[in-house]
Design a protein that fits this description.
The chain is α/β, with parallel strands linked by helices. The chain folds into 2 domains: about 160 residues, Rossmann fold (3-Layer(aba) Sandwich); about 210 residues, Rossmann fold. The chain has 17 helices and 14 strands. It has a 6-stranded mixed β-sheet with strand order 3-4-14-9-10-13, with helices on both faces. A hairpin with a 2-residue loop joins strand 1 and strand 2. The radius of gyration is 19 Å and the shape is globular.
């Protein structure tokens, strides 16, 4: 199927369908008792999201609390260091809490409040989703439980401290590889045990329907703002847009604003240490169709078709599947997906810091690295990067593992 057959004028009314599918990807593959709880969320979201009261309250929060709109910065010195192509960044690192995650967390917490829930539950990898949800819970007066793999607890100590300061309970998960997949497993089990009093606030465009749709909708503010800002600044659209993809929430946020435009779109997966299974988390590049965590998508599989072990220097990208909408957009050819490895990401981390005074999250560094490669291939034009988060959380880890290059 070619994407020219897709009516992008009505794309968001068509995808997902009423059962939560983007083509054959998505859906809801959960136990019947959990499906009843998820159906409650679906009905509430589809009802409340059309309410003028809900929409106006969310807009006020974004303006007065989050500090939106976030700006676009021209990365002039980085551009000059590469060639003639002009690089720009959508500065989600300047969103309150330092990443794009608060965009959907405030929406999910507001939904929980409207539904009369007392607690929010979530998983986190890099910790940005956990911090954002803890922030939202504090704002709305909700209890908050965050499940986090033991490996990531150690790597992301600053964010663990922030969550606790904000009043969240951080539950360390030691099962399996003790990273993001295991944190999701534990959070789902906790939600199943107490779904009447709480709401599960998933951290990306993954999980059973309606989460991929709901998180995309809340994140679409990134693409809507970016498109308007870029046109205002330059008088034209960018030639290409680039965002990192783990689960893929920041990418779907940016991509949403440009799907119907003559713009090349690139998602960047983590190649980690290399192509060997277990050394990367590039699901779309090396994976195959499969179901995990309640949805059908492209995933990395190990023995017997179980989710494979994954790795990335960026804790927020080490997930063995990806959002079903990303699988769909790859299949129809609308989005191209490439990779950046650890070395390239670390190089981009320091280059952006030294040349532009912006320390990016390691997740965002993958997008910067790929945009730099793309800029070298292009003779002229412009590239807009979604700088999905700031690198404060990664400083101790990067310095301990890689040191600081000499000036």
């Amino acid at each position: 199927m070619k994407y020219s057959n897709i009516d992008f004028d009505n794309y968001f009314k068509t995808y997902p369908d009423e059962n939560g599918y983007f083509g054959r990807f998505g859906g809801s593959y959960v136990p019947s008792d959990l499906q009843a709880a998820i159906d409650e969320i679906t009905e509430a979201y589809l009802t409340i999201s059309k309410s003028e009261k809900f929409i106006s309250e969310l807009r006020r929060i974004r303006r007065d609390f989050q500090g939106r709109p976030t700006p676009i910065s021209h990365l002039a010195r980085l551009s000059d260091s590469i060639g003639r192509v002009q690089l720009y960044a959508k500065r989600e690192d300047l969103n309150h809490t330092g990443a794009h995650k608060l965009n959907h967390c405030m929406g999910e917490a507001l939904l929980a409040k409207y539904m009369g829930k007392k607690k929010v539950i979530a998983e986190t990898g890099a910790g940005q989703h956990g911090v954002a949800l803890a922030t939202a819970a504090a704002y709305f007066g909700l209890e908050c439980d965050i499940y986090m793999g033991a490996v990531d607890v150690k790597k992301q100590a600053p964010n663990v401290a922030r969550m606790k300061v904000l009043g969240a309970r951080v539950i360390e998960v030691t099962d399996g590889l003790a990273t993001l997949k295991e944190a999701v497993d534990a959070a789902f089990m906790a939600y199943l045990a107490d779904y009447k009093n709480c709401i599960y606030c998933i951290g990306s465009v993954v999980g059973p329907h309606p989460f991929p749709m709901m998180v995309r909708d809340f994140q679409s503010v990134v693409g809507i703002e970016a498109r308007e800002q870029f046109l205002d600044a330059t008088g034209e659209l960018p030639d290409a847009i680039v965002a990192c993809v783990g689960g893929g929430s920041n990418a779907m946020g940016l991509f949403s604003g440009f799907l119907n435009d003559p713009v090349e779109i690139y998602g960047v997966e983590p190649l980690g240490r290399g192509k060997k299974l277990g050394d990367h988390a590039a699901s779309l590049t090396f994976g195959s169709e499969g179901v995990m965590h309640g949805f059908n998508s492209i995933m990395l599989k190990g023995d017997g078709g179980a989710p494979a072990p994954v790795y990335s220097v960026a804790s927020g990208l080490d997930y063995p599947s990806t959002g079903p909408e990303h699988s769909f957009l790859k299949e129809i050819g609308r989005v191209k997906y490439g990779v950046a490895d650890d070395k390239e990401a670390i190089d981009a981390f320091f280059k952006l810091s030294r040349l532009e005074g912006i320390i990016p999250a390691l997740e965002s560094s993958h997008a910067v690295a790929y945009a730099m490669k793309l800029a070298r291939e292009m003779k002229h034009g412009s590239i807009l990067i979604n700088l999905s988060g700031r690198g404060d959380k990664d400083m101790d880890y990067v310095i301990e593992k890689y040191g600081v290059p000499e000036v």
